[in-house]
Every structure is written in C-alpha cells, then in structure tokens.
Amino acid sequence: MLKKITISALVVTLQIASLECHAKDINLPDLGTPSDSVLSPVKEKEIRDSIIQQIYEYDLVMLDPIVADYIEKLGFGLAVYSENPKAPFDFFVVNENTVNASTYPGGLIIMYSGLFLRTDTESELASVMAHEIAHATQRHMSRFYADTKKNTIPVILGMLGAVAASRYSDSRDAPIAIAVGVQALQQQSMINFTRANEYEADRVGINNLEKAHYNPLGMASFFEKLMREKPSDERYQMPEYLRTHPLSINRVTEAKNRAHASEGKEYKESELYDFVKERLRVLTKNIEIDNASYYRKLYDEKKESEITPAQQYGFALSLYYSHENKKALKIVKKIKRTNQTQLVINLLQANITAEINRRDGKRMFADLYKSYPESPIVIEPYIQMLAKSNAFEDRNKAKNLARKLVQIFPEKPNYYGLLAITYQNLGKSIEANEALAMKEHKIHNNYRAVRILKNILKQELDYYQRARIEAKISTFENLITNEERHREIQEEKTGRRRF
Fold first, then answer.
1. pTM, rounded to two decimals
2. With b meaning 16 or more CB within 10 Å and e meaning fewer, what string describes 8-24?
3. What is the mean pLDDT of the chain?
4. Same structural domain for residues 414 and 462?
5. DSSP state of 121
6. To pair with 91 at 20 to 30 A between CA atoms, which of 59, 251, 393, 494?
7. Looking at the domain assignment, is residue 499 inside a domain?
C-alpha cells in the first residue's frame, strides 16, 4: 500500500528536475524523420541497446539467476507462439515495487517486480507478458517512436528515470513524487496512441495465451483487479501500468468474452510461479518487509498446515538473508519437493548449509552441478560460494566456472562482471580488467570499454596479451557512438562517474 505523500511542492519540483537530468542522460539514437511510418530494424536495435545500457547503468536490472531464468523462459515460451516467433526479444525485470510493464522497439520488454507480486496466478502474469509481446510483434511502439519528436523520448522513459533518480535520493517518497511529475509531463499523444492499440494487443495476446496453454481469463482477471484498486493517496490515482495501458469496462468485458470462447481446454501453470513470487517478495526493493517479519506474522496467523511450500521457501530465504541459518535450514528441510520445484529448494538448502558447514555446502553444490552442468541458476551461486574461500583450488574452480558461464551465455554482461571478480581473487588484474571491459562492451558502453583496455596497455604484457587487447580496442572504437562519446567526456569533466 502506498504511503501518504508528505512532500512539498518545492520538493516535487526538485524531483522533476532530477528526473529531467536523468532523462538527458538517456542518449537515444537519431530516430529519423517523423514522416517515417515505422522504425527500421537497425534503428529499433539502437533504441533497444540504448535502453539496456541505461537499466544496467542505474543498477535497475534484477540479476537474481532464478528470477531472470524464470522470466526469460516465460517470455520466450510465449514468444514462440506469437505472430512473429523469430523476432528478437529481450526480457528484463526491474527491481522495484512498482506495478508496471513496458514494451520498447526491438523486442525489449521490461516488467517491474511489483507487477509480478500483484498477480495471483501464472496465467495472470503470462497475460501481461503476452500483451506486451503483442505490442512488440504488432510494432506498436515502433510506430509511435517513429511518429514522435525526439524531445519527447525521455518522457516516454519517465518511469525508468524515476526509479533511477529515487536510488540517489534520501527521500522515501521520491518514487511517488517523481511518478507524479512524470504523469504531469507525459504527452497525451502517447495515451491516445496506446488506446488505439490496446484492443489489438488484447486480442493477439489472448490468442497467444491460448496457444501456450495458459488460461486466457488471466488477462481479464488481472486487469479487473487493477481497476478495482483504490490507493490511499488520491493524487496517485492508479497503478502506473494503467496510465500507460488505459483500461475500460468494455476492454475487460471483451477480454472475458474472448477468453470464454476457448473454455473447456486444459491449461498449464508452472509450480515454480509461487516460489519465484516469494523469492521476489524477499528481494524486491522499496517493499514493506522487514527481513523475515512478513513470514513470522504469516506463521502467527495461520496453522502450520495452512502454510504453502512456497511460503515456507520464502520464510527460509528471508531467514537466510537475516543470517538465521540454523532456523532457515530447519524450515527448508521440511518443504515438500516436486519435480518442478526441487532444484530451487535444493539450491537454497545448499546456500544455507554452506554458511553453517562449508564442506557440506560445497559437496551439495558439487552434486547439483553434476546433475545440471550448464544451468546458470546452479553455476552462479556455486561460483559465489567458491569465491568466498581462501583456498586457491576453490578460487580457481570459481574462475573456471565463470569462464564457462560467459562461453555458454556470451551476451550476459553480469557474467563478465562475475568473471572479473574471480580473476581478481586470483590476483590476475589484467584478466580481471579485460573481463570488466567486456562487460561494458556488452551493455553498449564501448567508450568506457576502450578506456579500460587502454589502461591495461600501460602494464607489462606479453606479446599475445597485447595483441589481443589491441585488437579489442580497434573493434570497440568503431562501435562508439557520438552520443556516448559526448556523455562520457562530460561525465569525466564533471566527475560524475560512479566508479
């Protein structure tokens, strides 16, 4: 529930100014002339890459491997049944307790963790994803961007800027204040545009849900739930999702009618949904959960037999993060496991065990890795556990596993960051900085990547190291955009770099 706003008009103005500063930092490429009916695939990719760079830059991406893996599988599992299954897609979760989801050109779909937490079934969650995928396959946002003047683009990205700005603010009310400012600044043309396309996204999305064997009624039930919400603060009229995806009784009714037309079919829902939801409840920022207090209250109010396995998992996870590992282990051992849920439960038990008895935890991770040798949700926590060790054998194993991750998933920038840590733990600063440069390259910060690589050249290198790094510098320099070069130079002058 949103708290009552206590910010003065002056503070709101300052927050809006802060947002505008962040908006100016969002450097998007030339979109062409307003007369273009739709963006070209090249321009769509440029916009997608620019936004991906921003969400990594401001540390907005939910990097938890279990959450990221679940969302990607959900998204691609729906995309394969879409009207354009070969289209490029990227699915991200923004770690913020905001009810919103957005589609951007180039198949970039961003969901906020607060929206996930507001759903009650996997079909409701899938309905939002299917709706956003439909916007992408119908190229609604691409057409809108092509028709929009360049100076309105930062406003479209307002909620991302709001979240980013709030991360640097001491005010707990900052996200609400900035959201109010964004609402005031938002161009009416965007609302009009989305109203003209929401029905089509509903129709295509419901068809997609049905093909993927989800309950198509999930879309109507979730939208109806949002429409019934009555926030405590009247100035914050509705969830952000409803401001960018305007709803009406007619839309909800038509969604129900379309869904009812396919009644009688069998639907599937993953048992993992509830576990990932509880994991997000613990990990999401700006949510009113004080460590394990939410779950303690739950246990106080219900009989133990009424607590679901997913809620037991959430309680054990919250206790783990509160360093109450013995109690956490006692709970996690009681959780009923199924074929779909046993891996995430066993991973949590391995993490908890490693904190209590390192040798036992290490053995559990080794067994899990043997069974799932290419699973990122196993390899990443295994690396993190090994990296804590002072033993050379463990640190070297962590480095080898990190190298395997970047080989299997070469487009994942956070895995290069993990590789850099494992190299640094072994005292290999050259390789560590080279991995950091690759991370910057993967999030389209090629100016920064080149700067890191040129600093490496100042060290003593053998012939092969120098040749490899010089080759990367030559490649990355050709990818630097004018906008990026200008931004980085300005940040260097003003000392605004964050590392």
1. 0.83
2. eeebbebbbebbbebbe
3. 80
4. yes
5. S
6. 251
7. no
